[in-house]
Specification:
Layout lengths: L1 H14 L8 H26 L7 H18 L4 H23 L6 H19 L9 E2 L5 E2 L2 E2 L3 H23 L2 H8 L4 H6 L4 H27 L1 E2 L6 H14 L6 H19 L10 H16 L5 H11 L27
Antiparallel strand pairs: 1-4, 2-3
Helix pairs in contact: 2-6, 2-9, 2-10, 2-11, 3-4, 3-5, 3-9, 4-9, 10-11
Length: about 350
């Protein structure tokens, strides 16, 4: 039944831009949700599955955005070259940071990613060739087979195709032997190592994979917004991405979309109505999101997606449907390997 619901959801995504009466604001909102969902899918793998917390995903988004903005707008290269450059930069930075921090335990990785977010925020804002705090405006549009994706309705399909591809790849990854090894990390390294799992190697795969998805999100963001500035890639956005993962479901791949949609829609509504009740300088959304986090961690630690999935199964009377919220991603990982018999 969940497959049917997800199929309907994908069909609606394809139809919405084709309806002339669909407001342009909705299209832009869905584009923003899709871009954020890419980052959150990576966080589900990294935090929800592998058990490693990162506050620095916004920095990787910035790497992808600034790489394509500089190469395509300042130097005149194709945006597709900018995509490759952003992926290479994110890979190198994630690999180097992973080599330093992933061998450590406890709070060292979260602290390292916080430092990463702060470092790149100030780098983006103080480099002359990146426009300092003004950023880079007038970014060129992506072209696919000579067709310009300048309008929001045009790039919409590219964004959501990339999101769906990322979800399929993530589900396949989690159901592979590599995915089973990654899932074993959350239970503790000692048990996984006793089965011959190279925990450092699989931690690195998770960390780099999440960074690459964030970089692709940055590439899409730059060409969808057609401007980049450091304010979009600060530490507060890294925390917001974590909010999305926890609210939607930190162990649910499809929950990434739900979490991103809820946070983005709620944030816009709060910003619209806050001036009627509070001073405009008051950051009310952070307070509300903090309260939501506490309530969800207390009452729904797996996020809202499993609750939604169980509700759908009850409505349609699908008693045989599994409450597995990731379709093929099972919570209990099978044995990683078998010991040789003597």
């Amino acid at each position: 039944m969940q497959r049917l619901v997800i199929g309907i959801f994908i069909a609606l995504l394809a139809i919405i831009p084709l309806i002339p009466a669909t407001p342009e604001f909705w299209i832009n909102q869905l584009n923003t949700i899709g871009i954020a969902s890419l980052v959150v899918v990576g966080l589900v793998i990294l935090t929800g599955v592998a058990g490693m917390t990162s506050f620095g995903q916004a920095a990787f988004v910035g790497m992808g955005a600034y790489a394509t903005a500089y190469l395509s707008t300042i130097l005149g290269y194709s945006p597709w070259i900018g995509l490759l450059a952003g992926l290479c930069i994110a890979f190198v930075v994630a690999y180097v940071l992973g080599q330093i921090t992933l061998r450590l335990s406890g709070h060292f990785l979260p602290l390292g990613t916080i430092a990463l977010g702060l470092i790149f925020f100030y780098l983006f804002g103080n480099m002359d060739f990146l426009g300092r705090h003004d950023g880079i405006p007038g970014i060129v549009s992506i072209e696919v087979f000579g067709y310009s994706l300048l309008k929001a309705r045009s790039i919409y399909y590219l964004i959501w195709i990339v999101v769906l591809i990322a979800i399929c790849l993530s589900l396949n990854l989690l159901n592979s032997r590599t995915g089973r090894a990654i899932r074993s990390l959350k239970s503790g390294a000692s048990m996984a190592e006793s089965f011959g799992v190279n925990t450092q190697h699989y931690k690195m795969i998770s960390f780099v994979y999440a960074a690459l998805l964030a970089s692709i999100a940055g590439w899409l963001y730059a060409h969808e917004q057609r401007a980049v500035s450091p304010s979009t890639f600060g530490l507060n956005y890294g925390i917001e991405y974590l909010f999305m993962a926890v609210i939607g479901g930190s162990v649910s791949i499809w929950g990434a979309i739900l979490g991103a949609a809820l946070v983005i829609i709620l944030r816009d509504q709060i910003q619209a109505y806050t001036p009627y009740f509070f001073d405009e300088k008051v950051n009310v959304e952070i307070v509300i999101f903090g309260i939501m986090m506490v309530l969800i961690l207390h009452h729904a630690r797996d996020g809202l997606w499993p609750i939604l999935a169980r509700g759908v199964n009850k409505i349609f009377g699908d008693k045989t449907a599994s409450v597995n919220t990731n379709l093929r991603f099972n919570e209990q990982a099978p044995a990683l390997t078998q010991r040789p018999t003597s």
